[in-house]
Structure formats: structure tokens, C-alpha cells
Amino acid sequence: MSRSDPEAGTAVQAAPEPGPADWFAALPVAALIVRPDGAVAHANSASESLLNHSERAMKGQPIDSLVRLPAGEASRRDGHGFAVYDVELVLDRVGPVRADYVEGMLPEQPGWRIITIHPEGASRRFANAGDRGGVRAAIGAAAMLAHEIKNPLSGIRGAAQLLAEVTEPEARHELTTLITSEVDRVAALIDRMEDFTDERPRTLEARNIYPLIARARQVAAAGFAREMVIEERFDPSLPDVMLDGDAFVQLLLNLIKNAAEALEETAAPRITLATAYRHGVSVSGGRGKPRRPLPIELCVIDNGPGAPPDLAEHLFEPFVSGKRKGRGLGLPLVEKLVGELGGVIRYAREGDPPATVFRILLPRAPDA
Hints:
CATH architecture of the largest domain: 2-Layer Sandwich
Order of helices and strands: EEHEEHHHEEEEHHEHEEHEEEEHEE
Strand content: 25-35%
Low-confidence stretches: 121-135
Structural class: alpha+beta
Largest sheet: 6 strands, antiparallel
């Protein structure tokens, strides 16, 4: 069908009405059509992005090999629809992802299903995460600052009062040393908090990652992790990575220290540093931008108990910590530094028995 354009005097072909296939492809939610035998028949664009597979590659593949549900959940299917919310799915080429998973049966098509995946537990996140995260961070900040600053100020005040009363040089020296050390402790805390406000761009250059890992491992083994076994599981052919060397060593030390603290009450504590090259791994570059390839993987793994379940989703929020003496600054700073290097970081519990995994994905050097 065509219509006339009165200004141009020409016939303009009307755009055809979109069909069901067009609507399915354009859905903003990851969706897959699954045949009665459990194999993928169709996948839309959003599912291609989420699963890091093309539709062509997914067609004919068993859905359970592409998206693995938590143990025991799949047995709840009864052929009339199925849903699990805010659970950890394991995606074939991506790894663990927190999401809502919904299956619906296609009318008049026995055995055929449509599956939608909503990353990051959308129903729970949009309902209350903004309020909960902001309140949690504010309460944590207030408690941490009150403890960390009030205590040394009390010590400084007491030392200053005593200083006015004593005359012996040795006693005066002890009190002035106490005052100085407590002031330095407050200053160090403020310096750490200022790290979050430093917006200066990093100078990135192509670097061999292994000397930097060795440096961080040596520092850790000589200090806070000297009682721990630190294993290495490296890909020897890893190409150069775009890095700021100092920032990389700092974030890696923070992760190793976090692992060492988590292992304090673990028998046979073990930390593993692992690297790998992940072909095809990429993340969204934002609206209107191409996806960013992040093939360089670095994992810091420990055999500790992991984060408490109620804190697992908030580990990278400032002032949130599951440790008795934790300040909740280490992991948020790690996430900030990883972001400045152009990468991403994720937390997961993986393996049998489960281990804690902090997985960093970084860009390779352009000419590597």
C-alpha cells in the first residue's frame, strides 16, 4: 500500500506492520523460545547480549546447558509455568548472574515454552534496593566514623590533660607519641575516604600482568598472608593488558587481604590467584555504544565461608562489611579502581565445595 506526499507529489510506500517475530526480537527483556525437547528454537537480541551468544549459536542447544538453575529448582516445573526470583543463575559463557527467571507455556503449543531472564533480581531491586542501599550506606558511614574518630579523639584529649600535669621528660615523650599516633590514625582514615573522591583519570599503558601479580603476592606473603598458602593457576599465554600499574597492585593487595581476613578461622587456609583468556566476553558500553570486549580474567579465590547471604549483594557498597572489625572501604575501593582500568568485578560462590571468587575482567592492550 502507498500514500501520496502532497508536498513532493510522489507516492510514499507505507512501512509494513510489524509481525510477532519483530516484536519478539525487539523485546527489552532477554527471552528465548524453547522446543518440547528442551532445545532453543529462537532467541531475541537482549538474550544474545545477556548470554554472550548469537541466536545462531544458541539454536538447537539445550537450554539447561546455556542457563543453569540453582540445585533443586528445576524439579519444581509442573508443565504449567515456572518462576524463581532473585536467584543465582549460571550462564554458559558469562558465569553466575543474579536474576529473576520466568517460564511460560505457549498456548495451543504443547511442550513449547518462552523463558525470560531479568538480570540482578529486578523485582527485588526496583522494589526497595535504592532505599535499602542508601540507608545501609548512611548508617554504616555514621557508625564507622563515630567509632574510628571518636575513640582516638578521646585518647588525644586524655593524653593532653595528662601532659599538662607531668614534668618527667620520658612521660611527656610517651604522651606526645600517643597524641601523634592517634592523629595519624584519623588522618589515614580520611586519606582512605578521599580515595573515593579522586576523579583524576588513570594513565593506562600496555603491561605484562604477571610481574605486577608477583609484586602483590610477595608483599602479601611477607605480611598479612604469611600464614596462608597462595597458589597460582596462570594462563602462560596471556597478552598484555591496559593498566595503571600502581592501581592494579593496590586493588590486588586489597583483594588478597580481604581473602586472608576471611580465612582467619578456616582450617588449611588457601588463596588461589588464577588468570585466563576468555574469548567473546564483553559488557555493554552504554546506550548507543558498542559492547566492550573484556577477555582478560583474573580471579582471587579463597576457601573461606564467603560473605553472609544478606550482605552478598552489597559487598561493593561503602561502609558495608560482614567482618567484626571491618570498615567496609576495601571492596568499594577495589571496584572503583577496576572501573578506572576499564574493567568490571564480580563476586560469586563457585565449585564443590564452594569457594569465594572475586572475578576481574579487563581489556587487553590494542596491539597485544
